[in-house]
Design brief:
CATH topology of the largest domain: Thrombin, subunit H
Strand order of the largest sheet: 1-4-5-8-7-6
Number of strands: 16
Number of helices: 9
CATH architecture of the largest domain: Beta Barrel
Order of helices and strands: HHEEEHEEHHHEEEHEHEEEEEEEH
Largest sheet: 6 strands, antiparallel, barrel
CATH class of the largest domain: Mainly Beta
Distance between the termini: 68 Å
Strand content: 25-35%
Radius of gyration: 33 Å
Shape: elongated
Helix content: 25-40%
């Protein structure tokens, strides 16, 4: 009898221990997620200009320069525009995912500036033509009034001035007609990235040479999928990340208790009101620059709308420069890539869903 009772107690004890072993592993603190993945997030810097074709005439457009439209490539290089964004490391081969608009800037405002340039040029030339008409008229009037009293040398001087004025006026008229006949409805622009580089978290950046140079190797052909992939020119990283982002399910309970837990549905990895986090460089160097070097920001929010397959909506506050930032869940799983926010709101932002990111990366 005692032996049977002992066996029963042993079974109960072992069962209790089994239940203790099967207890779910709790997610890490949010700060631990940041510490693990912050080295895998980089600040992207692009210096660029646009080459403009205006009916066979070439101009250069630098959006952040004072003059906007420039006449030589050298002027464009001396007045490069600069933008910043965020990217995250996706492989050991120097590959980084970000938004398409971070490295493929779209700016149609050049059309306004080119039209304004032509109108100003025409207006200035027209004024010069008017001045030459007055000059020609004055030379004629003076000659007809006083020629009989002029010395031959004076007469020759008047004739030369008259012919010179006619020639200058004729050149200006030709220029005006060329401007008038230019078809500005067929303006085209080509983005020229002069320098594309990345800066690492916790490093000092004081000049362009401090950036590791990159090239764009892939952009999404689907306008609804705002993604691009860049790669370091060396296909390695100057500073190796402690963790590389991936598309796996990092929930440790899957391996610890596979009978109870299965991998996430990558097409619907997070649900309404679940916590999500973003690591990024809001406002680029403006906020990132510190005495210890540039530092990324870690912000949090919740999923605020059901995933429609094209975008995630969450309450993470974002600013310009956070485009391309990874959005992760409580396990550090990649769930999306930040790409936009609702106008006039910092607390409703959109991300490209992780399944679309995976498809873009692997295709």
């Amino acid at each position: 009898m005692y032996k049977s009772l002992y066996s029963l107690l042993l079974v109960v004890l072992l069962s209790s221990c089994a239940k203790e072993i099967e207890k779910d592993i709790e997610p890490q603190q949010a700060s631990s997620i940041f510490e693990k993945y912050k080295s895998g997030v980089v600040l992207i810097v692009s210096q660029y200009y646009y080459e403009i074709d205006a009916d066979g005439h070439t101009f250069y457009y630098c959006p952040t320069s004072d003059d906007k439209i420039l006449f030589t490539k050298e002027d464009a290089i001396n007045n490069l525009s600069m933008s910043t964004g965020t990217g995250f490391i996706i492989s050991e081969n120097g590959e980084i995912i970000t938004n398409n608009h971070v490295v493929n800037h779209k700016d149609e405002d050049y059309k306004i500036f080119v039209v304004d340039l032509y109108e100003n040029l025409k207006s200035g030339i027209f004024q010069q033509i008017t001045q030459y008409n007055d000059t020609i008229q004055n030379i004629q009037s003076e000659y007809y009034s006083y020629s009989e009293y002029m010395h031959e040398i004076e007469k020759e001087t008047h004739k030369r001035n008259y012919l010179r004025a006619l020639e200058e006026k004729s050149n200006l008229v030709d220029m005006f007609r060329q401007l008038e006949n230019t078809d500005l409805s067929k303006l085209n622009s080509k983005l020229v990235i002069h320098h594309l580089g990345i800066a690492y978290n916790d490093t000092h950046v004081t000049q362009v040479d401090d950036l590791q140079e990159c090239v764009v190797i892939k952009t999404s052909e689907d306008p609804k999928v705002d993604l691009a992939m860049i790669q370091t020119k060396t296909k390695t990283f100057n500073i190796a990340p402690k963790a590389i982002f991936n598309f796996k399910d990092n929930n440790p309970n899957i391996a610890a208790n596979p009978e109870k837990h299965s991998e996430r549905d990558i097409k619907n990895p997070v649900k309404i009101n679940e916590d999500v986090y973003m690591i990024g460089f809001n406002k680029g160097f403006v906020i990132a620059s510190t005495k210890q070097g540039i530092k990324s920001q870690f912000t949090s929010g919740k999923i605020s709308q059901e995933n429609d397959g094209e975008r995630l909506l969450y309450t993470i506050p974002t600013l310009e420069g956070s485009s391309g930032s990874p959005i992760v869940d409580k396990w550090g799983n990649l769930v999306g890539v930040n790409f936009a926010k609702i106008t006039n709101s910092q607390n409703f932002s959109f991300g490209v869903p992780v399944d679309a990111v995976k498809k873009f990366y692997e295709e």
